[in-house]
Amino acid sequence: MKKITLCFIVFITLYSCSTVPITERKRVNIVDDSQVLPVSFAQYDTFLKENKLSDDKAKTKEIQEVGKRIAKSVDRFMRANGMTEEANNYQWEFNLVEDDQMNAWCLPGGKVVFFTGMLTICNNTDGIAAVMGHEIAHAFAKHGQERMTSAYGQQLGGIAVAMGTSGQSNETRALWNNIYGISSQVGMLAYSRTHETEADKLGMVFMIMAGYDPEESIELWKKMKESAKGNAPPEFLSTHPSNDTRIENLIKYLPVARMNAKQYGIEN
Predict the structure, then answer these.
(1) Active-site residues: which are they?
(2) Residue 19 falls in which region: left (phi positive, over 0), alpha (psi -120 to 50) or beta
(3) Are 265 and 77 spatial neighbours (Cβ–Cβ below 8 Å)?
(4) Number of domains, the chain
(5) To 5 degrees, how large is the angle CA 163–CA 168–CA 169?
(6) Which end of the chain, N or C, is surrounded by fewer C-beta atoms within 10 Å?
(7) Phi, psi of 149 (to 5 degrees)
(8) Helix crossing, 57-80 with 125-140: angle to 10°?
(9) CA 263 remoteness from chain centre
């Protein structure tokens, strides 16, 4: 078993290594869009059926307009940088769901959920753009596919079987919930923090490309810190960097984000 695992690790490292555009971080991904996106879209539809969409038409419109505006900038970037086929695979969708959680998430392929509770932290449209840019960045950088690849390396085939399932079985849904949920393994938690930090940086670049104020992303995390009231778990046991770490990282990255947006941005 150890030999099989070692061979698998060598194989994916040699043949499945790529680079995240803009941040230039090396990543390993063996999960093809044709495998993951149909399941992603089905899971998203199921979630929307099982949860209540917001009745606030004005806020729903704002969420969707901000999301589409940033996604349009990302799409232009991809098509201008030889990623047309990949861009064609995205089916961007943005929905505001009635839930007090201060949270938002994005599944592979561009399916975004924004909880109404998150609006209590967003001071304005730029604040919404900060959250939206971050979530869109997860899809752009294929963080979900990376997490699947990592889990695949641990389970040696379990995900391949589940991904090959045509129906939405309980096992498949449990698999996705595990991949996008909170892991109990500290190693996976650290891996998740890498993705969160990268999404913070890419999200800042994307919101600048779309014409939003990137400094609002720093203000957003200051408000998140205030709302936590010191109750956040220790950073090494969290799937996310601490609020202080995120604020510090974003302040340092702001001039780089402006430079990257100018270098890679396509005129609106």
Answers:
(1) 135
(2) beta
(3) yes
(4) 1
(5) 90
(6) N
(7) -60, -45
(8) 40
(9) 23
Please list, in sequence order, all residues whose beta carbon lies within 8 angstroms of the beta carbon of residue 20, skipping any fewer than 6 positions away.
26, 27, 141, 142, 198, 202
> In which region does residue 32 sit, left (phi positive, over 0), alpha (psi from -120 to 50) or beta (all else)?
beta
Give the three-class secondary structure for 17. Answer: strand
Cβ atoms within 10 Å, residue 14: 9
Structure tokens at 127: 């604040």
**Going residue by residue through the chain (268 aa), what tens digit of pLDDT does each one get?**
444 444 444 445 444 688 999 999 998 887 788 888 998 899 899 999 999 999 999 999 999 999 999 999 999 999 999 999 999 999 999 999 999 999 999 999 999 999 999 999 998 999 999 999 999 999 999 998 888 777 655 554 444 444 444 455 565 555 555 555 423 345 555 668 899 999 999 999 999 999 999 999 999 999 999 988 777 666 665 778 899 999 999 999 999 999 999 998 765 4
- Please name the residues in contact with 205: beta carbons below 8 A apart, sequence gap of 6 or more: 22, 133, 257, 260, 261, 264
DSSP-based three-state secondary structure for 230? coil
Q: Which domain holds residue 196?
A: 2-264
